[in-house]
């Protein structure tokens, strides 16, 4: 099933359009980074590190968006679409338990999202290194968190598509993803203002849907290690820099959340009439 | 009721309700091994829902299912079941051969490539094996669906409206296919609107109406009732009584139509004619007629009677 899902992605031109988008984004960032070096050559090393980190994270956000959108829109049609079109009828009449079909689809999507983040993310890091000589402190952790973010979102997409229609599930998943990102920014603003209840918005949303939390973990791993100290708790903390890394408890929660969402999806799919 | 372990399908008391609409209400029937059974009935009678419940695609609210001697709730029970859905769609990004290979893998049987290609040839897709399903017409997709249903060496084949997208030639192909399955001892559960086809290939019929079994039996049992059209003059009361003794009498214009029971003996008709002549009736014409499955079906559905119910 996993292999089938990957083959579906490849044949459905999702992969080609994603590759194109990625190449465009990488190309633009390469050009941008080279301009930074050319036009703002008189930055202090501290300043240029901040700028590099912000822009790297900005581009990475673009990449994570592509990965998230791509996998959410693959996850939607894969269950709900097949159930609606009738493809699932012949498939599920075979002697395979439904959870196995779901798990196969999930593994295929995880492979797809993971592969995309690994290749595109690593290429981006190389570009940054080649143009301005910046290399993040923990690139591996950053990319793993980025992939985990996509996995969390596609699991949500799968859960939604086991319950509602294909387009709606993709849109809802992406909408929730955007909402938590904004809630995360709101939370950061609240944090820097010292407003507890506003800060809690970010915290709560990060617990409910861990994509934004994982994204912050990824940013922290990719930005220069001295940045949080440089910035301090300031009002104008930019949304593309993270103040703190992730706690182990949060990472465990994110994994648990994903597992739980997958289990719920399997349960919903098991009970569904086709 | 004892469970016949050998039956291809054994369904008892199936019930399904969609919100407030009862789709299937206490349906029980059996398909014996090597037997062709047809499900008939008007749209919305619950035929497709019954089929989906057999295959675990729809959860029954109540009832029990055994497929080839195993409980229908186990996925493994479907290992040797082939299915062509009413809504037939196959992965458009795969080729016809890849769709078959996928289903062979999912069924968990080893079927050599040559045999898989043979199945495609059998349904008339021999020259399209390596084409993507996305480019197939509806009729070709239905043919592919037939190949999918047959590819994993099934002991039971469930065909839901197998000819809905096919031309007359395709329909004849499906008829021959079902007959060849019957010859090889493979049980077939057929749901079709085309009564003429059903009449030619099936051993038994279950007629569903409003989610219930309206009638069930072998073709002989359902159609055994034949009729006799008589054009008569000078029919007195005694002759009327004699006619009524032979079967149910109705008047159609100047003709008397006598419905004869299934167990009519060969001498019944000559005896009747002799008696009528002895009673002074002038006999102009005697035409034996046979009720078609279509007439019988319409009769059952219109009157709601279930005297043909011989489960």
Verbal overview:
- Chain A has 274 residues and is mainly α.
- Chain A has one domain.
- In chain A, 82% of the residues lie in helices and 0% in strands.
- Chain A has eleven helices and no strands.
- The mean pLDDT of chain A is 77.
- In chain B, the strands form three sheets. Chain B has a six-stranded mixed sheet, sandwiched between helices.
- In chain B, α5 (168-183) links the parallel β7 (156-160) and β8 (187-191).
- Chain B has helices at residues 47-54, 96-107, 113-122, 138-151, 168-183, 195-201, 219-223, 237-246, 268-278, 293-303, and strands at 9-18, 21-31, 36-40, 62-67, 70-71, 81-84, 156-160, 187-191, 204-209, 212-218, 226-233, 248-252, 255-260, 282-290.
- The A-B interface holds A 4, 7-8, 11-12, 85-87, 89-97, 271, 273-274 and B 52, 55-59, 75-79, 81, 83-85, 87-91, 93-94, 102-103, 106-108, 145, 148.
- Chain B: It comes from Actinoplanes cyaneus.
- Chain B: Residues 9-235 form the ABC transporter domain.
- Chain B: Keywords: ATP-binding, Nucleotide-binding, Transport.
- Chain B: Pfam families: ABC_tran (PF00005).
- Chain B: This is Multidrug ABC transporter ATP-binding protein.
Overall geometric form of chain B: elongated
Roughly what is the average pLDDT of chain B, rounded to an integer? Answer: 86
Order of adjacent strands in the largest pleated sheet of chain B:
6-7-8-3-9-10
Q: What ranges of chain B have pLDDT less than 50 throughout 5 or more consecutive residues?
A: 306-311
Compute the CA-based radius of gyration of chain B: 24 Å
The overall pLDDT of chain A, averaged over residues, is 77
User: How many beta-strand segments of chain A?
Assistant: 0
User: How many angstroms does the end-to-end distance of chain B come to?
Assistant: 13 Å
Number of helices of chain B: 10
Q: Which two chains share the most extensive interface?
A: A-B, 20 and 29 residues
């Amino acid at each position: 099933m996993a292999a089938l899902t990957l083959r579906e992605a490849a044949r459905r031109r999702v992969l080609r359009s994603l590759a194109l988008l990625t190449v465009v984004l990488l190309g633009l960032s390469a050009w941008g980074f080279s301009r930074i070096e050319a036009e703002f050559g008189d930055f202090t090393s501290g300043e240029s590190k901040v700028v590099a980190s912000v822009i790297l994270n900005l581009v990475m956000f673009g990449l994570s968006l592509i990965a998230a959108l791509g996998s959410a829109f693959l996850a939607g049609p894969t269950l709900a679409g097949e159930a609606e079109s009738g493809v699932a009828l012949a498939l599920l009449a075979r002697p395979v338990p439904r959870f196995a079909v779901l798990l196969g689809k999930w593994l295929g999507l995880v492979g797809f999202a993971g592969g995309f983040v690994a290749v595109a993310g690593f290429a981006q890091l190389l570009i940054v290194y080649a143009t301005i000589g910046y290399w993040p402190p923990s690139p591996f952790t950053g990319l793993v968190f980025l992939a985990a973010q996509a996995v969390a979102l596609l699991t949500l997409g799968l859960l939604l598509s086991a319950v509602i229609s294909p387009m709606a599930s993709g849109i809802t998943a992406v909408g929730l993803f955007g909402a938590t990102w904004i809630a995360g920014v709101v939370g950061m603003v609240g944090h820097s203002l010292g407003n507890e209840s506003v800060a809690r918005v970010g915290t709560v949303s990060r617990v409910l849907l861990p994509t934004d939390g994982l994204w912050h973990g990824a940013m922290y791993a990719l930005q220069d290690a001295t940045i949080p100290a440089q910035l301090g708790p300031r009002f104008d903390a930019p949304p593309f820099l993270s103040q703190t890394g992730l706690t182990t408890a949060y990472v465990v929660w994110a994994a648990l959340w994903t597992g739980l969402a997958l289990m719920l999806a399997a349960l919903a799919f098991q009970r569904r009439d086709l | 009721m004892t469970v016949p372990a050998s039956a291809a399908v054994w369904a008892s008391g199936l019930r399904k309700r969609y919100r407030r609409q009862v789709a299937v209400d206490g349906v029980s029937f059996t398909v014996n091994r090597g037997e062709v059974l047809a499900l008939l009935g008007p749209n919305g009678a619950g035929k497709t829902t019954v089929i989906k419940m057999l295959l675990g695609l729809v959860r029954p609210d109540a009832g029990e299912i055994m497929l080839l001697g195993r409980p229908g709730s186990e996925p493994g029970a479907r290992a040797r079941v082939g299915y062509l859905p009413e809504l037939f769609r196959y992965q458009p990004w795969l080729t016809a051969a890849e769709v078959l290979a996928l289903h062979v893998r999912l069924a968990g049987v080893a079927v050599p490539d040559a045999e898989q290609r043979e199945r495609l040839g059998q349904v008339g897709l021999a020259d399209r094996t390596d084409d993507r399903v996305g480019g197939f017409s509806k009729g070709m997709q239905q043919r592919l669906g037939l190949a999918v249903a047959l590819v994993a060496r099934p002991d039971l084949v469930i065909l839901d409206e197998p000819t809905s997208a096919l031309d007359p030639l395709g329909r004849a192909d499906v008829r021959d296919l079902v007959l060849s399955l019957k010859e090889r001892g493979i049980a077939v559960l057929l749901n079709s609107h085309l009564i003429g086809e059903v009449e030619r290939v099936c051993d038994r019929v279950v007629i569903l109406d409003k989610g219930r079994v309206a009638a069930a039996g072998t073709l002989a049992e359902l159609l055994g009732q034949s009729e006799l059209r008589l054009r008569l003059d000078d029919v007195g009361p005694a002759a009327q009584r004699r006619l009524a003794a032979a079967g149910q009498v109705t008047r159609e214009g100047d003709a008397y139509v006598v419905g004869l029971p299934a167990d009519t003996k060969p001498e019944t008709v000559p005896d009747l004619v002799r008696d009528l002549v002895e009673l002074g009736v002038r006999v102009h014409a005697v035409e034996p007629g046979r009720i078609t499955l279509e007439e019988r079906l319409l009769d059952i559905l219109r009157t709601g009677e279930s005297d043909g119910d011989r489960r």
